[in-house]
Input
Amino acid sequence: MADFLSDNTNQHYCLVQISDSHLFADRASKFYGLNTYETLQDIVALVRSQQSSIDCLLCTGDLAQDSSVEAYLNFLDALSPLDAPQLWIPGNHDIRSNMQQVLDQDCVSLKRSAQLGKWRIIMLDSSVEGQVYGLLDQKELADLDLELADSERNGNFAMICIHHNCMPVEASWLQQHCLKNSDELFFILDRYSHIKGVVYGHIHQDFEGERNGVKILSTPSTCLQFHPTNDDFTIDSANPGYRWLVLTPEGEISSGVERVTEKTYDIHFSSTGY
Ligand SMILES: [Fe+2]
Ligand SMILES: [Fe+2]
Output
């Protein structure tokens, strides 16, 4: 059974997705020239200026670049001005046991799911130790099926969060790092009609698609962006961003991406490897 963040079934819920912050233990560290702690602070300031009330923050992996406990503490510090419950999932750069050390069960968790009124938010761990690509193991797939069956029985709508992309990207260097068994994911999803969205990070770019009536959305990184079409690793010039999602009591998702404006960053565009 999912933990309730809210049991009001008549309200709209505002969620904010924060992804791929790639923080380090040392807040002065840089990632391709970008100070990732600073860019995350810029995103938090942007969210504060644009979102008056946030019901939940979806933190969809690669929160740390160096996987350190200190980096996760830095993440908590950076997000504290938003004063909202946080659901975390690991990305390929994260270590789940290190994330677990900084959690506060009241408002920050790695839990499987949460309930917001009629909405079941399901969190999937696609990280594979030592690998950049993602995979949902049999436990994740079985739990997903259980969550979907339970939420369907309760007349809920469902939204799924995962780090790795389940839809292809055009940039071929990046596609090799995708979710390897999206066919197994879709095999389960196709058996239910109450799933409204799948959201992910990892590809450091904005994507909006649809598959069998399910919205498929990715969000930009809060730091560096990857070029969406170049077949070799290429840093994109787009600024850091985040995604907002409004879930309605009728089962609709409206969503958009916002980016930092009026600020330029000293990015090392000539870097060739990831
Ligand atoms: Fe990332
Ligand atoms: Fe990633």
